[in-house]
C-alpha cells in the first residue's frame, strides 16, 4: 500500500494559530442551572462517554464548559454536566420530550446531513437509534429523527427510497472514463432554483431537466441530487505536487472528485473536526492523533483533493479507501464526510497494531506502510512525522 500521495501537507503558521485558538475555546460557560452537576475528569474519560453515561449530549457539555469543537478535556478538569439532575452518574433526570419523525435511509444519506436537514443534532440521532459513535447507517433502515419536522424532507416510515437519491460516485483512474460528458452532481439547497444552478455551473435549465427527468423545472426540493450535464471537469486540481507529476487518468479522476465535492453540501471545518474526534473515540484511536493527521493533510477541509486523487479531510486515495472498507466490512465512500473520516481513522488504527511505534505509524500513513518497513523514512516523511506530532500537542 502506498499512501505517500495522500497529503495536502503545507499548513500555514497562521492556520495553526487559528486552530489552536479554536481548540482552547476561550468562551465563558453559561451559568450553572439547578439541575446541572459537576464531574472531575479521570483517566479514560471522554466527552462522548460522559454524555452517554449522564443522559445528555456532547454538544450540551461542550457548550456548558466552553470546550470548543474538539471537545478536549484533561485529567483533573472539573466539568459542568448539564441537565443531569442531582449528583453521581445517574440518569434519573427526565429528558425533555420533543417531536420526532422517521426517515428511511436512501443512497447518499449521512447522519450529519439528516441532522442538518431536520434541525437536530448528530448526537440526538445516534442516541435515538442506538447507532454507536461511528454512526453507521444502511440503505432501507428506518431512523427516528428526534426533533425533526414531520412532513419535512425525511421520508415517512417505510417509504420507498426515491429514484433520484443517488450516492456520489468516487472517480478513480480506472473508471474516470465513465464520467465523460456526465458533468458533476449537485445537492439542492434552500433557495436554489434550476436557473440559478444552471447559470453557476455553465449549463442550461433544459439540459439539467432532461438529465434528471424533471417534468416541471420549477419543482426541485432540498436534498435532491441533480446531475449537471457537461464535459468532465478540468482545471480544478493541478497535475503536479511537491515536484511529482501524476498520470493524466489520476488527475482526471481528481478533477472529477473535486467537482463532485464542490457541488455537495459538506460539513464545515469545525464540524469536520468534531466528527474526527467522535469517530476516533468510536474506534479507540487517540483523538489528538486523528485531529493532527486531519489538520496536516487538509486543515479539516472535506472538499480537499490532491493531484494524486487523495480525497477529503483525511486525504485517502481510493485504493486505501478500499483497504479501509475491507477492514470495517462495509463500503466506505470517500466523498461522504463520515466515511472519509472513518477510512482515515481505521487506517491509523491498523498502522498502530501490534505495538507499532507512533512515529512509524504516522510515517506509514504518509509514505506507505510497506515502503517505511523496507526502505525506512524518506526525508520528507521525517518532516511530516514531526509536523503531525507538533499538531498533536496542540490537540491534547
Chart the SSEs and their pairings:
Elements: H1 13-24, E1 37-40, H2 47-54, H3 58-65, E2 78-81, E3 100-104, H4 111-118, H5 122-129, E4 142-146, E5 184-187, H6 194-200, H7 205-211, E6 225-228, E7 240-241, E8 244-245, H8 248-263, H9 269-282, H10 287-298, H11 318-328, H12 337-351, H13 358-367, H14 369-375, H15 379-395
Antiparallel strand pairs: 1-2, 3-4, 5-6, 7-8
Give a quick rundown of the structure.
Helices cover 40% and strands 8% of the residues. The chain has 396 residues and is mostly helical. The protein folds into four domains: 13-81, Roll (Membrane-bound Lytic Murein Transglycosylase D, Chain A); 95-167, LysM domain (Membrane-bound Lytic Murein Transglycosylase D, Chain A, Roll), CATH 3.10.350; 181-231, Roll (Membrane-bound Lytic Murein Transglycosylase D, Chain A); 269-395, Lysozyme (Orthogonal Bundle), CATH 1.10.530.
Mind explaining what this structure looks like?
With 396 residues, this protein is mostly helical. The chain has four domains: 13-81, LysM domain (Membrane-bound Lytic Murein Transglycosylase D, Chain A), CATH 3.10.350; 95-167, Roll (Membrane-bound Lytic Murein Transglycosylase D, Chain A), CATH 3.10.350.10; 181-231, LysM domain (Membrane-bound Lytic Murein Transglycosylase D, Chain A, Roll), CATH 3.10.350; 269-395, Lysozyme, CATH 1.10.530. 40% of the residues lie in helices and 8% in strands. Strands 1-2 form a two-stranded antiparallel ribbon. A two-stranded antiparallel ribbon has the order 3-4. The longest helix has 17 residues, at 379-395. The model is unreliable at 1-34, 85-97 and 149-165 (pLDDT under 50).
Amino acid at each position: 500500500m502506498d499512501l505517500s500521495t495522500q497529503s495536502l501537507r503545507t499548513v500555514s503558521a497562521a492556520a495553526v494559530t487559528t486552530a489552536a485558538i479554536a481548540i482552547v475555546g476561550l468562551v465563558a460557560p453559561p451559568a450553572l442551572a439547578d439541575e446541572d452537576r459537576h464531574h472531575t475528569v479521570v483517566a479514560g474519560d471522554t466527552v462522548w462517554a460522559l454524555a452517554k453515561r449522564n443522559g445528555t449530549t456532547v454538544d450540551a457539555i461542550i457548550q456548558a464548559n466552553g470546550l470548543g469543537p474538539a471537545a478536549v478535556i484533561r485529567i483533573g478538569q472539573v466539568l459542568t454536566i448539564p441537565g443531569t439532575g442531582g449528583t453521581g452518574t445517574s440518569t434519573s433526570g427526565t429528558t425533555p420530550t420533543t417531536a420526532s419523525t422517521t426517515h428511511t435511509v436512501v443512497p447518499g444519506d449521512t447522519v450529519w446531513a439528516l441532522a442538518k436537514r431536520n434541525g437536530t443534532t448528530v448526537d440526538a440521532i445516534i442516541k435515538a437509534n442506538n447507532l454507536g459513535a461511528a454512526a453507521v447507517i444502511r440503505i432501507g433502515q428506518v431512523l427516528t429523527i428526534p426533533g425533526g419536522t414531520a412532513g419535512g424532507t425525511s421520508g415517512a416510515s417505510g417509504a420507498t427510497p426515491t429514484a433520484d437519491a443517488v450516492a456520489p460516485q468516487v472517480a478513480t483512474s480506472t473508471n474516470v472514463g465513465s464520467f465523460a460528458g456526465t458533468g458533476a452532481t449537485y445537492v439542492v439547497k434552500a433557495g436554489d432554483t434550476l436557473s440559478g444552478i444552471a447559470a453557476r455551473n455553465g449549463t442550461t435549465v433544459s439540459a439539467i431537466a432532461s438529465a434528471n427527468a424533471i417534468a416541471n423545472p420549477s419543482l426541485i426540493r432540498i436534498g435532491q441530487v441533480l446531475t449537471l450535464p457537461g464535459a468532465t471537469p478540468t482545471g480544478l486540481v493541478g497535475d503536479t505536487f511537491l515536484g511529482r507529476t501524476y498520470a493524466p487518468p489520476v488527475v482526471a479522476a481528481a478533477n472529477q472528485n473535486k467537482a463532485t465535492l464542490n457541488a455537495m453540501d459538506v460539513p464545515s471545518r469545525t464540524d469536520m473536526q468534531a466528527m474526527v474526534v467522535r469517530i476516533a473515540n468510536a474506534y479507540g484511536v487517540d483523538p489528538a492523533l486523528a485531529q493532527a493527521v486531519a489538520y496536516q493533510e487538509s486543515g479539516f477541509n472535506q472538499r480537499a483533493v490532491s493531484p494524486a486523487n487523495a480525497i477529503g479531510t483525511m486525504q485517502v486515495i481510493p485504493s486505501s479507501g478500499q483497504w479501509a472498507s475491507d477492514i470495517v466490512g462495509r463500503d466506505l465512500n470517500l466523498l461522504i464526510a463520515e466515511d472519509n473520516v472513518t477510512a482515515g481513522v481505521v487506517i491509523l488504527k491498523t498502522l498502530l497494531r501490534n505495538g507499532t511505534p507512533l512515529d512509524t505509524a504516522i510515517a506509514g500513513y504518509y509514505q506507505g506502510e510497506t515502503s517505511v518497513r523496507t526502505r525506512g523514512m524518506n526525508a520528507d516523511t521525517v518532516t511530516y512525522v514531526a509536523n503531525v506530532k507538533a499538531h498533536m500537542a496542540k490537540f491534547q
